[in-house]
Model the fold of this input.
Amino acid sequence: MLTRLIPFHRPRSPARAGALQALYDTAATGWQDGISKLGFLAAYAELMQAVPPPASHPHVLDVGTGTGAFARAWVDVQGDPAELTLTDISPAMLDTARARLPDASTVVAPLGAAMDGLPPQDVVLCAHVIEHLDDPHASLSWLFDRLKAGGTLVLALSRPHWCTALVRWRWGNAAFKPDAARHMLATAGFIDITLHPFKSGPPSRVSHGYIARRP
Ligand SMILES: C[S@@+](CC[C@H](N)C(=O)[O-])C[C@H]1O[C@@H](n2cnc3c(N)ncnc32)[C@H](O)[C@@H]1O
Done:
């Protein structure tokens, strides 16, 4: 099987991090169209419908927002938050997200950066980002620290499948079985961890949704 030929945890490096930003800057123009054709917009909406509504006037942060598709799904399903902040390492991606969500604040910063001035969040969104990073455990801890007590994490994470193996020839992402993802989330401190498999199409093969809560 292809999944056996390609290791799911290949080492990354600072050079690779720079290359990743360049890759995403280049991909920004066609990204939204691509994920729409693959069914991710519908899958993201499906996941957001499973999220318990937060307190009124929530503060929402989308980390590694890309074109803003995950955050847009949140807004379409849950309504406009009081504050929406979008972050990414790719300025070109953030430009497209800003066009889609003009009321949002945008920050060019990597996951893990100091976010001075950002208050604790009611909801943190993060779709298909931590599988690109050297230390997914530390990444989840950082996401946990961005939440206020009782706040919710909505995560989309690559899962092992031969289709994922094809995707990672280009993107180099890792992939996580549900048990491993649950373990990482629990180790970071999350509780009430629920797995939300996507119903159909490519998202059902390459990705899983998770909802978890900070106690
Ligand atoms: C697979 S795309 C997902 C984009 C969006 N979340 C979505 O689901 O459509 C990964 C995104 O993470 C961003 N990214 C990669 N490394 C990052 C890092 N260290 N910190 C923040 N964002 C990062 C990329 O620039 C890209 O926009």
Summary: DSSP finds nine helices and seven strands in the chain. The first strand starts at residue 59 and ends at 63. The chain has one domain: 2-213. Strands lie at 59-63, 83-88, 105-108, 121-127, 147-158, 191-197, 207-213.
